[in-house]
Amino acid sequence: MRNQHSMLFSSVIAATVLASTQAYGESEHFGKTADGQDVEVYTLKNESGAIVKLITLGATLTEMHVPDKDGKSADVVLGFDDVAGYQSEDNQYFGVTAGRVANRIAKGKFSLNGKDYTLAVNNEPNHLHGGVKRSLDKVIWKAKEVKTKLGVGVRFSYTSPDGEEGYPGKLHVSVTYILSNKRNSVRINYTAKTDQPTPVNLTNHSYFNLAGAGSKTVLGHTLTIAADKYTPTDDTLIPTGKIESVEGTDLDFREPTRIGKRIKSLDDTAAIGYDHNYVLTRQDVKAGELAVAARLRDPKSGRILVVRTTEPGIQFYSGNFLKDQKGKGGKTYAHRSALCLETQHYPDSINHPNFPSVVLKPGETYKHVCVYSFTAK
Fold first, then answer.
1. What pLDDT sits at residue 123?
2. Do 180 and 244 belong to one domain?
């Protein structure tokens, strides 16, 4: 049964529909965590046939249904049908909001204003995606429906106390997903404020397969990345501090390239495939404004994903550790059957003064926008 909040949301949406707004949504109970906390799911729909589902656990994008070139809809992101799946070892950050600091921090250590900090090492020998027990993907966020001229959505908010997962400062975080009224695009707005200097680097960790979640591979997809440079890494995937050209390397996606074309050459590297941060070109685009970061296409379905962001980097990960786990509808998520395009600051930026800073100070507001836009032809 729906709770009072759900009924209120439904009545608001009903009024919205009567007012001829093209997108609408509803919320309902999704389940309970292992320690008994309620998890809600929000469903957003628009007149173009897109359906987006989001849950309060991890401010997670669980479903994204978009049509192919023939108008047939499919869910193109990986996920699970229940809370237990999202709390299991099979969940490799599917669709979550990752942070406080997404990606890796070398050896789980950094210094800030003369003080040393130690974080959990959960990706030996490094810290990954904010920690273990109370990283942003593992907590319950407050949720509130929102309406804008662009469409309808959900604003998730969470306050991370000082010292949570070893990070300094009390951090107020907001993540808002907006499904556009007519275009099949999802806009993600991130904001954060702190009472002490602290590193912040948030991202969405959705795994995409434009042929439909559960399809066998993404190696036939073609990818373009708007970057002529990348950040080389050591054998533990920590940046060396250098920024180098993709020219002449198997990392060059400046022109549309089939993902499987050169991936075998990376099998014996530390990344075991693609797991690289690209330095976005952002030509003629001012800081803080959206720029195209990547374009992904599945030739068979005709679906196209364009990623735009305000961030300086994007991590391309080719699903190298997917392990045939069972996902939504009992579908199997095979090795390299989905990929991630994570808009972000560079990995381990807190330990590299020459990288764009991830330090948020009191009185400042962290802002990050990412837009996933889907078309088909």
1. 97
2. no
